[in-house]
Amino acid sequence: MTRKQIAILGSANLGLVSDITETLYELGARLAEKKCIVLAGSCGGIGSIVSQAAKEKGSFTIGISPYQSRLEHMEKHGDESEYFSSFIYTGSGFKGRNVVLVNSADAVIAICGQVGTLNELTIAYDIGRPIGLLKDTGGIADTFGNVLKLINVDKRTPIVQSQNPSELVDRLISMPTG
């Protein structure tokens, strides 16, 4: 059986999420328990915390970098090998990196988030990637459903929501992927 690749979407600004660190570790641990490969934008923040927790529990984690080389990445963000098992250097900037991240995943999970997370969510929504929203974490993860109502889009992209990280993972990975 192929392992599910789950992309973590969320803010690089940890000041927004200091009170949910335990929840992020629980999410990473559950993804590892379910044998998921964890993908995240490798520029610190939520994705790095979830990836670190998953890696510590034995999961394979991949950092998708907007930079073109390890050297350039390390100059901008330092050594993130404690979070990620491997890296992919896209050389396509942040918005281009977002496309690679979402297209490489079987499903995505959004936690908190700002405009970059909104960009990742709209990519996932547009291509029909199953979306998990970790509720009560703030930011776009709590408001994405309202955004879809406002723009009156009628797609069949599956979206699941939960305040409980384990429940969210279980529901999301049970969905069929394309």
Tell me about this structure:
There is one protein chain. The model has no long low-confidence stretch (mean pLDDT 93). With 178 residues, the chain is of the alpha/beta class. It has seven helices and seven strands, in the order βαβαβαβαβαβαβα. It has one domain: Rossmann fold (3-Layer(aba) Sandwich). The protein has a seven-stranded parallel beta sheet, with helices on both faces.
Quick structural overview:
With 178 residues, the protein is of the alpha/beta class. The protein has helices at residues 21-33, 46-56, 70-77, 93-103, 115-127, 139-151, 165-173; strands spanning 5-10, 37-41, 61-65, 86-89, 107-111, 131-134, 159-162.
Short key terms for the protein model shown above:
about 180 residues; alpha/beta; Rossmann fold; seven-stranded parallel beta sheet; globular
CATH-scheme architecture: 3-Layer(aba) Sandwich
The CATH class is identified as Alpha Beta
What Rg is obtained from the alpha carbons, in whole angstroms?
15 Å
Q: Could you name the CATH topology? A: Rossmann fold
